[in-house]
Amino acid sequence: MPPSQQGGALPLYLQISEMLIRDIAAGRLVDGARLPPERDMAKSLDISVGTLRKALSELESHGLLDRRQGSGNYIRSKATPEGIYAFFRLELVAGGGLPTARVLDVARMQKPADLPCFGASIDAHRIRRLRFLGAQPAAVEEIWLDAGHAETIVAADLSDSLYLYYREVLGLWITGYEDQVGLSPCPGWAPPEFGQPPGAPCGLVERQSRARDGSIAEVSRNWFDSNVARYVARMR
Amino acid sequence: MPPSQQGGALPLYLQISEMLIRDIAAGRLVDGARLPPERDMAKSLDISVGTLRKALSELESHGLLDRRQGSGNYIRSKATPEGIYAFFRLELVAGGGLPTARVLDVARMQKPADLPCFGASIDAHRIRRLRFLGAQPAAVEEIWLDAGHAETIVAADLSDSLYLYYREVLGLWITGYEDQVGLSPCPGWAPPEFGQPPGAPCGLVERQSRARDGSIAEVSRNWFDSNVARYVARMR
DNA sequence: AGGAATTTGTGCGTATGTATC
DNA sequence: AGATACATACGCACAAATTCC
């Protein structure tokens, strides 16, 4: 039986791409896995090759699929410049170094007034982290996640990639964001381990992240040591 | 006769989208213009509707076309975050303000050693500009354009959007770039009109721009006054 | 208000080109 | 060189959104 395409349902090609995304998030499709040939896959899904290709294009645009002519379609869900960590765009000046983070503090509170207006809830979770690139402390980070997406947050559950945590644990799919980069003094709560003392001039990345429904789910600020790291953006 | 699709030529749908882009850049298609219905357009171009739709999708992904079901396809070439000026990513902290620039200096010389390796030529054109957002001086800019793309450059010919100039005058189509944002002292050649004196801490945007063939055609550096402007990046 | 005409969106099937193995 | 697999291109039918009378 063909997948349903009645009523107000999503278009078929989006149903397929979302199904594949769920398979990736659930671990049924691991990084590097090769999908069956398009014709076989289309036949087993009982859809046309053209529709399947449109679904795969969606995945590709999300950076979750690597399409190689003459070879095959390969899942990409690991830490690559275009993968999961594409969202995190601080890189070592010297190059290299995988991004990791240590949670400093997690708390739920009312949104302070100086935050940009976002989300539906009055409350938000505040997460403060020290971010590393390789062994090098590179930035201190403060995240505000709208409380509508999670009742409570357990620090121990957080993975290095918060977006992965959002997707897998909270079912929250971040589809886009907007960054503003400027200069700002290092905040007072930065631990000594972070090279810059409070008040020192740091680069500041302010981010607003959007969920699939277009609402702003999360707001974050990253103060980075410009001697160590730089913000990187790639287009096209 | 159908458009040629032989040898190592571009795919047909890319030929069509590039033709439309040239029409937009040349002013033959103005902002807000409505294209003919897809079926008519496909017939007059002697291509299939599917191929035309793929070309239009390309334009849409470049932010140059607004597709409205039941209504039509509309050109968008005005200064919007996703439009022609999408490449220019400095914005006023206060918001608003159209980007313009005043050329300070144009010279052709050997590439200095401190530049990242780029382009095929030994020489490069150095363009220095003072950039404005509205009436506000926001950044000083130094551009290195590989000499392989132009024998000489006349300062008077440069438009506010260099990418427009590249496309229209040089036939050089910039398809992507990579930005690195950090902190750097204001350069000595910055004019007094730029708020920051030489040596003052400024934001620095280093850009490498790629041509369609994947080569790096241009390298630029923008020092911006973080009291006035911020670097902005949007994803998806 | 409402229905017909117009226009883009979705989906299918097929044939051929081209890169990879 | 041959087989495999993705990319491009064509054409058709119907659905959904918009516009117009």
Please supply descriptive tags for the structure shown above.
disordered N terminus, 236 residues, 6-stranded antiparallel sheet, Arc Repressor Mutant, subunit A, two-stranded antiparallel sheet, DNA-binding, Chorismate lyase, homodimer, alpha+beta
- What is the general shape of chain A? globular
Number of DSSP helical runs of chain A: 4
Q: Name the CATH homologous superfamily of the largest domain in chain A.
A: Chorismate lyase-like
**Average predicted local confidence, pLDDT of chain A:** 84
Describe it for me?
The structure is a homodimer of 236-residue chains. Chain A has 236 residues and is α+β, with helices and mostly antiparallel strands. Chain A folds into 2 domains: 12-75, Winged helix-like DNA-binding domain superfamily/Winged helix DNA-binding domain (Arc Repressor Mutant, subunit A), CATH 1.10.10.10; 90-231, Chorismate lyase (3-Layer(aba) Sandwich), CATH 3.40.1410. Chain A contains 4 helices and 10 strands. The first copy, chain A, has helices at 12-25, 38-45, 49-61, 162-170; strands at residues 65-68, 72-75, 90-92, 99-110, 123-133, 136-146, 174-185, 201-211, 216-224, 229-235. In chain A, the strands form 3 sheets. Chain A has a 6-stranded antiparallel β-sheet. A two-stranded antiparallel ribbon of chain A has the order 1-2. The first copy, chain A, has a two-stranded antiparallel ribbon with strand order 3-10. The radius of gyration of chain A is 20 Å and the shape is globular. The two termini of chain A are 39 Å apart. The A-B interface holds A 86-87, 89, 91, 93, 175-183, 201, 203, 226, 229-236 and B 87, 89, 91, 93, 175-183, 201, 203, 226, 229-236. Strand 10 (229-235) of chain A pairs antiparallel with strand 7 of chain B. Chain A binds a DNA duplex (21 and 21 nucleotides) through residues 5, 11-13, 37-39, 47-51, 53-54, 67-73.
